[in-house]
Structures are given as C-alpha cells and as structure tokens.
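Wait, mind explaining this?

_____
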Amino acid sequence: MISMTWSAGVNEIVAKYEHRGDLSEPDVSESYAGCDSVTRTAGSPIYLDPINGSASWSGTINCPKNSLSEAISAATPGDEIILRAGKYHDNVTIDNLDDLVIRAADGASVVFDGTKSITADLAAVWGNADSDGIQEVDLPVAGWQLFYNYDEQVPARWPNAQFSDETVFNRSNWAEGTLTSNNNAYTQGWLTDAGPETGVHSGLNETINATGLDPVGAIAILNLGSFRSNSREITGWNGANGTFSYDPTGISWKNKHHAYFLEGKRELIDIDGEWWFDNDNSRLHYKTPVGQDANNLDLRIKVQPFAISIENSDRVTIQGIDFFGTTVNFNNCDSCSFTNSTLEYPSTSKRGLGITGESEDDRWMTRFYRCANTFVDQISITNTDGGALEFHGSGGQSHNNTVNNSYFHAIDWSAADQKGLMTTIYEGGRDMYFTNNTVHLTGASSVLSIGDAPKVFYNEVWDVGHLQTDGAVVQVMQGEAPGAEIAYNWIHDVIKYGARFDAPINQVGEGMNGTMHHNVIWNAAGGLMIKGDYHNIHNNTVFNSSGKNDIIVLTDGGINNKNSALHRNAVDSMADHRSEDVYANPLPDGTNWNNWNGYTEGYRQSIASGYGSSNCIISNAQSLYCWGDNTYGSLGNGLHGTGVFSSLPVEITSFGTGLYPVKVATGGHHSCAILNDGTVSCWGYNSHGQLGDGTQVSKYTPTPTLSLGVGLKAVDIVAGGHHSCAVLDDGNVKCWGSNVYGQLGDGTTTTSHSPVTLSGFTGTSQAISLAAGWTYTCALIEDGSVKCWGRNQNGQLGLGTSGSPSTTPTQITSFGSGLYAVDVDAGWAQTCAVIDDGRVMCWGQGSNGRLGTGNSIQQTTPTFTASLGTDRYAKQVVQGGGHGCAVIDDGTVRCWGDGTATGTGTTSDVFTPTTTDSLGVGRTAHALIAGTGHVCAILDDATMTCWGSGGNGRLGNGATDNQLSPVPVITTGVPQYWQVSDFLVDPDNRDFRPKWGSPLHVLDAGAYAADDASAWVPGTKWSYSPLSSPTVGCTDEGALNYDSNAEFEDGSCYYITITPSATSTQLSANTPMTPITISAITSYVTNSSSQPFQFPAGYDVHQDMDIAVDRNGNSHICFRTPDGGGNLFYMTDVTGVWVWEGVHVTSSFNVGLECNIEVDSNDVIHIVYQKVNTADIKYATRAISFDGSISGDSTWAKSNVNTANDLGAYISMDIDEHDTLYVAYFRGPPSGQDLLWSKKVSGGSWTHGTIDTSGATGRYNSIVVDD
C-alpha cells in the first residue's frame, strides 16, 4: 500500500481567498491552518502582523505574531523582526539583545501610534458643553497631548497662538517683561508684564480685569536667560503693578529681552481647539471647533512617551518604521542605527500633566544616552514640544555619532527646560557628524550644539530660532572648537548668526583651531561669528545680513584671532566688530587675503579701467558720469572737437531702452561699456575701428559693437590707445581696432573694425579679466597666470625679452613658486600685478621709477616693488602714463613714478610706493583709475577725489590746473555700490556660482567655482510626506475593502474566509477518499432578518429605494416619499446613528422614482432617479459627510442624465473599479419600448446609447459591470 499526506492543495485553495501579505520576501501562503503547532527555526526572521497574527503563534512567515512585545520575548541576539503593514501600540524595552534588526516589511506602512482614541479605545463619554462651549471627559489614563483628526490641539494659553498658522513660533505671541539693562524694573523671582502689544494681544493686567483670570497656579514659560527658557508655576500676583512671582531656583537670567506665556489652567481656554488636562482628577477639558459634540469627533490623547527603548544592547537596527505621538529611546547602545522613519509629534514636555521645571536629563524625546557610533539616516522629525534629537554623555561615552539625510520641521514651540544651550540637536560628547540634513521652523536659539570637534556638512537651514534671543544656527563653544569643521551648508532667512565659534573675552588661546569653509549664508542676522584664535575661515559666501556684519572676526582688543586665516571669502561686510566697518575695526594684520569684502571692494567695479585723459564711473542711477578730455567724443555726451572737455562729471544715459552700464573702460581717445544684457557699446574716436561697429566713423554717443557671438556675453572690457578687447562668458577673448603691433592677439597685424577671436583661451587657460596698455594687452588666466600680446619695446609683455612684439597671447615669466596674480593693470609701456600674497610685481619701462622698484631700470620679467609697508598688502594696482598706484588693505593709497601723478605733494619722481597725501579726514580708498598723468579714486563714503595733471579737466574739480595732492571731485553722481549677490549667477534661484570674470571669480572667492558644472546642493535627498491627518482604512491588499490611499490601518479589513472540513487526509490504494468540503464566510455579512434602521417617522416610504455599502462598511440608502407629489431622500449610519436628509425636495414635481445609489472609491455618492412630470432621468452627487456636518438639499449637486422623451420608468445602475457609472433604463411609449444606456466616466460627462429596440423590451432591467 502506498500512503501519503495531502495538504498542500487545501492550503493553495485557501490562499486564493485569504489575506495576502505585504512582504517581498518568499511568497506568503496565509491559511493560518495549523499555526498553533507550527514552530520557527532558530535564526529565521520573526514576522509580525497586527491584524491577522496571534500572540500564541511562533512568528513564521505564515504564522506571524501580532505584537512587537511578543516578538521581543521570543528573540535572541542576531534575530531579525519583520513587521507587516498596520498600526502598532507597543511599548517595549529591549535589554541585552545585541545585533537585533527590527524593520518594516518591504513596501509596508508600519506605524507605532502612541495615542488612544478617547471614545473608541478608551470608551470615554464626553459630557455636555457648558456655557463657554467646553466639554469634559474622565479618562482612565493620563494624557498630555490632544489630537483632533491627528492634528495637535493647542494647550490652553495666553497670549493665544495656533499650530495651524504657526503663530506658536512667533515671539510676538508671547508677552514681555519690562526689565531692561537700564531700569532694573524687577529682580529674579518676579516679572512685571509690559502690557498690550498692538494688534497681537492685550496685557496680562487687562486680561485679568476683563475675564477674572487668576494667574496663580498657571504655568509660565519664561525666556529670561536670552538663549535659555524655563517653566515655573506662578506663585503670586500683584494686580497693582501687574507683577507675578515664581520660584527662581535654577532659572537662567539676563537683564534684557524677557518674554513669557501662560498655560496650565482651565480659565485660559478661550478659543476653539484649546484644552487642559486636570491631572489630579484625570479629567480632560476641551473647547470643540464651532460647537461640535466632542463625542462625534476623532479625538486622541498621547498616552506613552516611547514605543521602543533599547537598553545595553549593541548593533541594534530600527528601520522603515514610522512613529506618531511616540518615539524611540536608546541607552548604552553602541553602533546602533535608526533609519528610514517618519516621526510626528515624537517629543513632548510634561507640562500637559502640570509638571514644571522638568529635568533636562529626563525629557520625553528622541534620545541616545551614552551611545557611540550611532547612525541616524533618512528620518523625519516634525512637530515637537522639545528638541528633535539629543545625544547624552561625555566625549568618552558619546562619540562618532552621525545624523544624515534627515528632515526636521516645526521643532520646539516652547523651547523650555532643554539640555545645554537649548538647541534643536544636542550632543554632549564629541566627533559628531551632521550631514545632508534639512532644518526649518524651530523655536530654540540654536539649531546645533553638537559637542567637541563637530563636523557639519551639506545642510540647509532656514527660518529657525524664533523663540529665544542670542545664539547661532551652528553654535560651537570654546572647548568644542578644536577640530570643528563647518562646511558646504546653506543657512538663510534666520534671525540668528549663521555659525559661531565662541570664546571668552580677554582670554588668550581659548576657542582655537576650528574651520569654516564653503558655506553660503544669506538673509541672516550676521553670517559667521569668529571668536578665539588659529581658525581657518575661507571660501564662504555671505551676503545680505541684517544689522550685523557678514563675517565678524573679534580680536578682543588685539588679544585673539591674530593667527586666524581669512581668505577667499565673498562677503558684503567683514570686520573686527559686530556691525561697524572695517576701517574703524580692521582685521588683524597678516591674517587675510583674496577676500572680496564689500567694505573695501564695494565701489571698485564702478570706476573705469583704462588709460587716457578722461574718466568714467558707473552711478547708482544706472548711468555713467564722465569727465575730462572730449576732443574725440570719448565722454559720450554727443560733443567733440578741439578744446572740448568737461571739468565736471556729465551724466550719460543713452544706452537704449532698459539698458544700462555694468562695467566701463576708458582708452586713449575712446570709451566702451558692458551693458546689463552682456552686449558692448563704445563711443569716441574710430579711425582704427576701435569702436567695433564695423566702421571707421567716430561716434559721440554710445554705439553697439557688432555681435560678440551667438549667445555670448561680455564680462570684462578694456580700451587701449586705439584698440579694445573683451572677455566673454565662455572664457574666450575678442578684440577689435588697431593691430599695428599685434595688440589684437589674433596672430596678425591686420586692423579689424569688428571683434576677432583670439586663440589660446580654452580649458585651464580661460581668461577672466584684461588690462590694456597703449599698444598691448594682457589677460589674467583662471589659474592665476598672465598672458600678454602686442608691442614689447620696453619688455612690457613680461616675456624676459624686449623688442619684437607678440601677435598671439603668450604666457609671461612666472611670478615665483606658488605665486599667482589676482589683479593686473597696464600703462603706457609698463605692467603691474597684485600677487595672491598681497605684494605687487611690475615689469616693462622703468623710467621715472614707474615700476616702484626703487630705481628706473627696465624689467622684462615680473619684479617685486619695494615694500608697501609693514604687514600691509595691496588690494588693487593701477598703471598710468608714467606712474603707478595701489590701494592698500588699510584703505590708504601708495603711488610711485612721475611725481606729479603720485599725489604725494611733489613733482619729483617717486621710486618706491609712497602714501599719498590725505584723502580726506577719516576717508579711505575703495578703487582707483590711473590715466595720462593723473589718478582718481572712489572713497569709502561714495565721494571721489583726483590728483595730478589737471589739463582738459581730468581731475573733475571744475578746474584745469595741476593738483599735487588729492582734491574732491565735484559731482551729483554717486557711484554704484556693488554687493556679493551682483556677482552671482542667479542667487534668487540658488545658483551661487560667481559670474565668469566677476571679482569673485578673479579672487577665487566664495563657496563655488565659476566653472562648476555640477555644483553641490545641500539638504536631504528625498521628499518628506507627513503622517498628520492620515487616511485611515484597510491597508491589506488582500482584503475585499482594501484602500490604496490608507496610511493607518483601522482594523476594518474584511475577507472571504475559506474553511476546509479537513486540512489533511491519508490516501491509500483502492480506498475511496473522504470528500473534503469547503465553506466560505464573508466577514462583514450577517444573517439577520431584523430591520437595522427605521425610516423617518411620519413619512410613507414607498418601494423606490436602494442601498450601497462604502469601503468602511457604512450603509447609504436612497428612498422616495409621496409627500408634495414625490421627493428624494438619503439616509446613512456613517456617524454611528441613522440620520436622514433631503436630496431633491420640491412641492411641484414628482421626483425620486426608481432611485439607484452607488459609492465610489473616493467616497463620493451617486444617485440616479426619475423626474416623473417630464419623464427625465436625474443625477445627484455629493461626497460622504463622515461627521454629519454637511447635509440638506442644497449640498447636493443635481443635473440631468438624459432628457429625451418618455424615459426612466425602470432604472438600474452599477459602477466599475475606475469609478465609471453605467445606467440602464426603459424608454416607454409613445416614443417606443426600448432598453437604453448611459455612461459617465469619473470627472466626465454623460454619453448615451441603445441596447435593444426589438419588440416590447427594457422593463425590469438590471446592469452589472464585470471588472
């Protein structure tokens, strides 16, 4: 006899009907038959299913457990626990269980919910509302946070504030104290209210007088310590002066910026949505929205602070699990990870229970205590009363923790009783990494205070620090600075400093060796605050700070930051002061180089480059002001001729509609400007084609050059004796005009009246700026080298030789090992460059001492000038006919060469850089232009001064005589002040790369490179999806009422359950098998003949009615009453009780006959019915009102299905899986006796057709859609 056990077939049949799993692991066959005896192999995963699992089962893939606590009790070190979709209410502690993995099944939505429904879970019943609209309910458990439809409700408070409009994060919704540093209005333990704030709130005394409120016993959240706040119970009240008392023990205190709000008393409930929990009597008080009955609302309370606590266990992983109203807690857990999780309302203070001044070491928040090498990745934490994350322990206990690629929003709306400086993220240890995160909308003074040697990279932070004063987004205390690195962050739109290295005042050597680099900070109340010493601050882009400098480098009177390095920063303002300028508060000597600092550079682009007898500046009115020689029309005002000049600046505006200059150059007898659209206009003498318009005809007003190339824009412009050149935004150079000496650089000596392209400016040899001498040109290359071309009779090309010209760009002799140029200018036959270390090198003709080397010797290679002064360095160098000058870092000007043009009060040649005579009392120079025998400067107050030869009015002082010392330019024109944002590609759309050829590009200053094709972007690399206001329903794909939109499981799933008469049988030869029968039960259908509802009393309900059941098992019925000729009504039990309403009620028509009703997948009701009087088919629709607040005839949208003749005596309707409606109906005589149909796709219109017209057909029809 052959015998075998047959059971697989039964299980296969059952699996076709039972709940299907969510796991992408091996296929799940969930019959659950025999699970009571199934065992799990040691080391295999433990599976959980909160809906279909059982505590008594072993946790195999087909026999899952139903809770995490049950799984933990069965787990051993190294196990993996896999959770299927659903809502869990566990509160478990995992102790001494290493290498455990707790994760959601692939693709499953797993939520740990720390709240309970007041009515459904706790079976509590609210009492009736009192005269103030407040209802009360006794709770069997304590609750310290209240939710309505999963949205947090505001605890009763004064002054009022809301979560919905984020006013809880607005400090204007706090009251203020009267104390200032000058009045000593009260002392610790007391606070005097400052009274009303117009348009925001009344004063406390006024509120008490108006309402009878007794503040004693209320909880005051007090911000009395600048960046620290505390909660205390009010112990006394003096109405005479509006002062209350509190226990000052442990309160942080500063005598400025006091603010507070009150909560914790029933009398404070005065607006809808506010609540108070009477912890002594376990009674909740709530003012419902718009007077609704709390018994009919989805109200939940938080009942547990933690869902999962890890104790003394290493390498534990929690992955893919979401948390609502609860969170996780790690204690003594090394190398643990918490990843891919959403946490909403995880952190809560205990004030909801009436507890004040809670211990900062025992907060109910997401915390890691004495944990090392923790990895937190791709989590979101939102909506907290308390910080977001805390890592507790000293450097030896808590270190090398990482928070990466995570999102933080709406953090800490009270900012009280927190750890340390009271920050969003706290670390008490060292070496923490905070990377690729996004943070916005927080209350605490600082976002990050994360221990010793923190690493803060690639984060975006904005709109933070609203509820406390002082502080910085990234706060590094004095002992934390060594090894700290803050880099590649965007910090913007904040009322705090962006980042801060702290140190005590007047203490040498504290707060040292930190680095901040490649950060972009804008719209902050100060960008970077640097205290201490030996810091490295470089390549930061900071602009548009409000009230404070962009980079503040404090020396404490010369004690600190003497050894800090500040280089390649692009900032609007940098000084040794919080708000005053750099001239009164200079940076430490020798510490800074290649910075673009608006204090010293802001006007530089407004002055012309070039060499000649005229000058121009760009004004803040988007025009030019020019003065000097105008013989050939080089001023651009339309005039020209022998003896024509202007000794006062004249305004030039004729550039075309919407066009204005952004860069200007003056040459021998012509001028050119780059306009805001990147085109070039030139004017003046044109006999050599130097205007580039294709002609040799002189023009006396700005005239566009010919095209520079399709899509190309000019970024720098120079004008020589009779030629012009421009750098384009692709790094190439084009020139036009005289080419007798090869000064166009195109390899020929052929003059060109239109722009010609030069070779040699590709790859790493792209040009970023130009300088033009009388008959030669030089270009500054992106790598800091210089190329020159043209005439070389005096070695002005710097090639090591003199004599023969060069007709193509040729790299000059090296500046020396590791040195490169950051600024270049050319004169008659001599060239100078500012080197990256701030020294100046010159070459070419040496007569008159024009090279500044101390003699008159010609130099054919770059040669250092004599000293610029002890610890001084150059910011700009210019060359004129026979002289040169430099702007020095202290704002003075040093000149050399032909004495008349040096401004030193002498006509004798000056052979070394010598400080000019006074520029004016307290004045400093921003920018220079050197021409033929003269120099002009823009000063720090936007005035101008000139000196040297006064012929043809070139000094702009209304005269023509020479001036050996600086004299003011007389003009109404004000130079344009340039800011960092002017030189960025598109800062409004977050492109912070410097424009090609801009000053930032030249200096390599700022956080981005100009040619960076894949610029870094900080912040999270994923999109946050909130859990708040979730769709609740059946999340099981195998259920008959599966809801693909449901985020929370509500236990409503129902199935067809298949039960076999036997799960196995023995098969034997020649022995008939006992038949196995299978019965099916649908879980939501009951066999009952009792009527589950009553129609409205007083109405004779006709046979015209239909019923539909929605996806949550609620019933929806349409019916007709004969009153008024016939009306259509609707009733439902969605609120738990049967209610009814009119749909189409009229006294003049007979409607509602043959009504049919369906509910679609979006919870929209559809009813079709006949209007008897006109024999039409009508259609009514409306969304289900789950709370019953929407009802009545007017809330239904009514329209026609078909208005043809004689329709609708017999109607049927069905709906398909795409929510398309199908209606069959009868067309009667005299039009016929036919069966017709109509169809309406979701969101579309009705279409119609014919089914059958043969004979007398169409009555008693029924339509069913096969999905």
